[in-house]
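>> received
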Amino acid sequence: MTLPRVLFVTGKGGTGKSTVAAALAIALSRRRPTTLADLDRRLSAAAALGAMPRDSTAVKVTDTLDAVALTPRAELEAFIERIVPIHAISRRMLRSRTFGYVTAALPGLEAFLLLERLRIMAGDAALEDRYLVIDAPASGSAVELLSVSSGVKGIAPAGTLNRLADSIDGFLADATRFGAVITTTTEDLAVREALETAATIRARLGIVTVAAIVNCVPDLLFDTSELAAMSPLAGHARLAVRRNAAHEQAALIAPRFAEAGVMTISLPMMFTPGIGTAELTKLGRVLHARLLDQ
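>> returned
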């Protein structure tokens, strides 16, 4: 499967978004150099990889994988420092109350500049033949982030910001450069939100969803006769039925996404007290086989 250069991982809170982003970065790094861009303030994906980047400077995880931390505020500061190269003046400008009023009057400016940074990073990734995996905000906030350039166009119908907004829109709609990966679990609420997210970003922004990752799918452990034999065990029997039901529910999800034109990949339930490199590598092998080996 031909993947876009940038994979934007989002999903409902609690569906394992950061874990999937980290596992996906590991999977892609087996094919070519990869950068994980962590937009989460808690740096959950980077931490799972054993990296704690403090700014946009890359921290090496392996020979083919590194991680960076990106925040909207840091991108605003970097933008001001680029257009006002005298450090003392740019620092004073950023601290001034007047500048705070200006940025407050331009809603979404910081997020817009974060998108511009991702666009630039995608260009660099293309030149260096690398992948860029983004641990994005949860789906509701992610849709707002991806939609911010249209708001900037309304505020700035001409000039530099308008031209940047056009460039960002073109980047997001280019399926060779940008694609979404949406995480879900087998729960119906999470599935419905994932489907809605895919439909919204496609209709509003022209963004393709590369795959829906169905996380935490347990194996089918018991057949019908074994469940019947356990029926006298009350609570144990109920747990066994629930375990089988979760597995069977996952099989019903794929047709719903297929109808929306989205492929699904199921990741196994990890029965461990924590997720570390070994677990991420195991999940990464599944993602590699489905996304890259076909």
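>> The longest helix spans residues 235-259.
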